[in-house]
Specification:
The complex is a heterodimer of chains A (552) and B (313). With 552 residues, chain A is α+β, with helices and mostly antiparallel strands. The N terminus of chain A is likely disordered. The longest helix of chain B is centred in the middle third of the chain and has 20 residues. Chain B is an alpha/beta fold. The chains are: A alpha+beta (552), B alpha/beta (313).
């Protein structure tokens, strides 16, 4: 058939252009075990002709069929793993792909089983749209929305998904009743407004019968809104990232030969322009973007989420984990916040609970730091949305916490930017990803500049006194950090010390560095701070504490 | 693709949303750079197929104007099509990539083959074992693979960073959650990560990109008159020295390969598609999935899942 349609070069070119010009929409689906979510996705795939004959044949001959009345069990198209097919549940996030003539779609299919809140958060983290399934039959039975539906809607709001659509399923079982649909819609809209969701839509569907999924229902003539697919094909893709101020976290320094030094990364927010004045964080140094380099040629501009390599006019120090912003950011009042103290909403994802006082590894943009949980401000009861006190957080629980990091983070609130406001927490012993954090703000404003305390104290080979000095400085109201952690490679020391200096924090190290490395370090640090370097190698312990420790 | 970016850029005063291939490209490049920044010794698993060809181009783009900063590893089962091997050698040389070829010589010398061992055991020895040995020999802590989530149901659950224990095995029930584009690269000694930069690409995306970027691929993908025999219900290309079983005869048909694996286990399909546009047209009319012609995926229900748990891609 395509052979007939596309028989000339010209027509094929048109087709190709149309395909190349398509937008990508990512959506996530959330529903409880019996809401019929797999069936809905199977129906979407089937009715958009995204299922191959051999896959459909395998489903038709499968031993398992949970659909009654001779229906094809569409849920089998998506239940990927053997264990799931046998138990009839979905145990992990699965990604599906289909396209129509209007858009390309990626579905993050996440299970709605009680203990799998973390999976929904995962799928939701990259989604433009959330489809929350609501079982009309269960609503009639309970007389209200199930707790799961409330949880799913809450997580969609927490993860900042721009659009939420409630697909009210099993309308066939409730006699396609407009009254039932209206009751569900009223309750959902009330919930959505309480959660501050800006764009919500409610659609009555039957995934099993196909009503309003892809084709308009003939059983619900009282409904004149879009089908689910029409909605997904036409919903405007509102995204904050390209519109915000420039944020370019450096991923990698490219230095293929002596003539080229470029900074590779993905524009996380805003637009980068060749010839534009930019400021490097944390150094504060300003320079001009001389080129935006790609394999396909230099670009005059690059916008979120393009991956490019930036060449700068001046030889400034800039390395992985640091960031370029517009030089005008300060006067425009849109610099990212810089702090070692952040507040964040966290979804806990591991059996081992989050405990106040524990230190985790946090990854934020391209920067990896250590983060200590200072406090749990409150835990959210996802069914009632009420706040309560707790000392620890179990898997699938959600709370607002306070973190202290060993290096400052440059961030925007998650509400403004999913890319520069998000962070994952990693257990430093098992390396498991244990939490997803959405930064709400700084828990202390920019740390006060510590007048009098040096930017750097060198105590080669003396870790004990380094630690004592840190404790004493903290006791006297200064902020100090020992930077002997092997997470910080030697070549990053200057950048780290500079970052700490910007936040008014003293860096202390007991590393045994080569003497030319020490000279280089002292020279570099003296170049960006007035606070000075204390070389403790010729001083005894008491003298070090006296000079740097705030003991007068 | 490239021209599309350039066109946008010259007219772009306010940012415009990228089209889907540009968005996928940007994501894949970011994934590769992140892995190179964070892992001590990455390698790219290069299978010579169309997906590998796309992955290789993305690597060239990611590290431009530098060279690809990691070697390519090809696991050679000795059953690959001769056209694949000559393409591999010529193309990697042309782009200046470092190529490592690993073979399980012991099993090959012992005569491992799918007919007597069965496809599962044969794959286990010549692919999975060989791959794990090759990774261990090179001391690689991260391996880029060209797998896509749309290929097969168990792959739909793969992470972009797929954690493997010290035996190289995948535990689907114990995967690290993966949020936003923040990937967890932390490992203990002996553990490794398979990195899949093409996770979100579909088969159609791959072909559109090959076309838009003019990326060279193995000629076996294009339809041509080729000698073949019918064995085990599939059209197997005939090559010199192949022993015919009773009742088999060589005939010639215009065929092409939709995906490339080992010669005995990858069937050909009848096709008139001898150019990329024709392949894309043909793909749109397909009603059967891409791996249908791969004997290895059908030997048992959930077969791919079993292989992956053991360390296969």
């Amino acid at each position: 058939m395509a052979n007939d349609l596309l028989h000339t070069e010209r027509e094929f070119q048109d087709f190709l252009d149309a395909h190349l010009g398509q937008e990508l929409l990512r959506f996530t689906t959330a529903g409880s075990v019996d809401d019929g979510k797999s069936t809905l996705i199977g129906r979407l795939l089937h009715d958009t002709k995204s299922v191959y004959e051999d896959q459909l044949a395998a489903v038709k001959k499968s031993r398992v069929n949970r659909a009654a009345n001779g229906h094809v069990d569409f849920s089998l198209l998506t239940d990927g793993l053997k264990a799931e097919r046998e138990q009839g549940i979905t145990i992990d996030v699965a990604y599906r792909y289909f396209s129509t003539s209007r858009r390309k779609f990626i579905i993050a299919d996440t299970p709605g089983h009680e203990q799998y809140t973390r999976n929904m958060a995962t799928g939701a983290s990259t989604a433009d749209v959330a489809v929350v399934l609501i079982d009309a039959k269960a609503f009639l039975r309970e007389g209200k929305l199930l707790p799961q539906s409330r949880r799913h809607t809450y997580i969609a709001s927490l993860l900042g998904i721009p659009h939420v659509v409630a697909a009210v399923n099993k309308m066939d079982i409730v006699g396609y009743s407009q009254e039932t649909f209206q009751a569900i819609r009223a309750e959902f809209v009330e919930l959505a407004s309480r959660l501050g969701l800006k764009s919500v839509t409610t659609i009555p569907v039957s995934a099993l019968e196909g009503d309003n999924v892809v084709t308009p229902s003939t059983n619900m003539t009282w409904y004149d809104g879009p089908t689910l697919l029409e909605f997904l094909e036409t919903v405007p893709l509102l995204m904050n990232e390209p519109l915000g101020p420039l944020r370019f976290p450096v991923q990698l320094v490219q230095r293929p030969d002596a003539s080229f030094r470029g900074f590779a990364g993905q524009v996380a927010r805003g637009v980068l322009r060749a010839g534009e004045r930019v400021r490097a964080l944390p150094s504060g140094r300003e320079t001009t973007v001389s080129r935006i380099v790609t394999w396909d040629g230099d670009l005059p501009v690059a916008a979120y989420p393009q991956s490019v390599t930036v060449e700068l006019e001046d030889e400034i120090d800039l390395s992985r984990g640091e960031m370029l912003v517009a030089a005008s950011a300060e006067e425009e009042g849109n610099l990212p916040q810089a702090s070692r103290h952040v507040r964040a909403m966290v979804v806990w994802m591991h059996e081992e609970p989050l405990v106040v006082g524990r230190t985790y590894i946090a990854k934020h943009t391209t920067r990896t730091v250590r983060a200590t949980v200072k406090a749990i401000r409150y835990r959210v009861d996802v069914a009632t949305l009420e706040h309560g006190a707790t000392r620890q957080l179990a898997m699938n629980e959600i709370a607002e916490i306070e973190l202290e990091t060993n290096l400052p983070l440059f961030f925007d609130p998650y509400e403004e930017s999913r890319t520069t406001g998000s962070m994952i927490l990693i257990d430093s012993l098992t390396n498991a990803t244990v939490g997803a954090a959405m930064i709400t703000g700084a828990s202390k404003a920019l740390d006060d500049t510590a007048n009098g305390a040096p930017a750097l104290v060198l105590l080669p080979g003396r870790p004990a006194i380094a630690e004592r000095l840190r404790e004493q400085m903290e006791a006297h109201g200064y902020r100090a950090v020992v930077i002997d952690d092997d997470l910080i490679p030697e070549e990053s020391l200057v950048a780290v010390i500079r970052a700490l200096d910007l936040a008014g924090v003293t860096a202390i190290t007991s590393r045994a560095l080569a003497s030319d490395a020490v000279d280089g370090l002292v020279h570099a640090v003296s170049g960006f701070t007035q606070r000075g370097v204390l070389r403790g190698d010729e001083l005894d312990d008491e003298k070090v504490l006296e000079i740097a420790g705030g003991v007068q | 693709m490239s021209s599309a970016i350039a066109d946008d850029a010259t007219t772009l005063l306010t940012p415009k949303r990228l089209n889907h291939l540009q968005a996928l490209e940007a994501e894949s490049i970011a994934i590769m750079r992140e892995a190179v920044a964070e892992f001590a010794r990455p390698v790219m698993l290069y299978s010579i197929g169309k997906d590998s060809s796309v992955m290789l181009r993305l690597a060239q783009k990611a590290f431009y104007p530098g060279k690809i900063p990691f070697p390519l590893l090809h696991v050679d089962t000795s059953y690959k099509f001769p056209e694949m091997i000559s393409f591999r050698d010529a193309y990697t040389k042309e782009i200046g990539a470092e190529l490592i070829v690993h073979r399980n010589e012991e099993a090959i010398a012992a005569g491992a083959n799918p007919y007597t061992l069965g496809t599962q055991n044969c794959c286990g020895l010549l692919k999975t074992r060989s791959l794990l040995d090759g990774l261990a020999e090179g001391g690689f802590d991260a391996a880029f693979g060209g797998a896509r989530r749309d290929e097969e149901k168990s792959r739909a659950k793969e992470r972009v960073y797929s954690f493997r224990d010290s035996a190289g095995q995948w535990d689907p029930k114990n995967q690290r959650p993966e949020l936003w584009s923040l990937y967890n690269s932390r490992l203990r000694k002996g553990e490794s990560i398979r990195v899949f930069p093409l996770s979100n690409w579909t088969e159609l995306d791959i072909w559109l990109y090959l076309y838009a970027e003019k990326i060279p691929i193995v000629p076996l993908y294009f339809a041509q008159e080729r000698p073949l025999i019918v064995r085990g219900g599939q059209m197997t290309l005939y090559h010199d020295g192949m022993k015919l079983l009773p009742g088999e005869e060589i005939r010639t048909e215009k065929v092409r390969m939709r995906s490339l694996g080992c010669l005995p286990c990858t069937g050909a399909m009848r096709s008139e598609a001898d150019t990329l546009p024709k392949i894309i047209e043909e793909l749109l009319t397909f009603r059967r999935s891409e791996r249908e012609n791969r004997a290895i995926d059908h030997d048992e229900e959930g077969s791919m899942e079993v292989k992956k748990r053991e360390g296969y891609f």
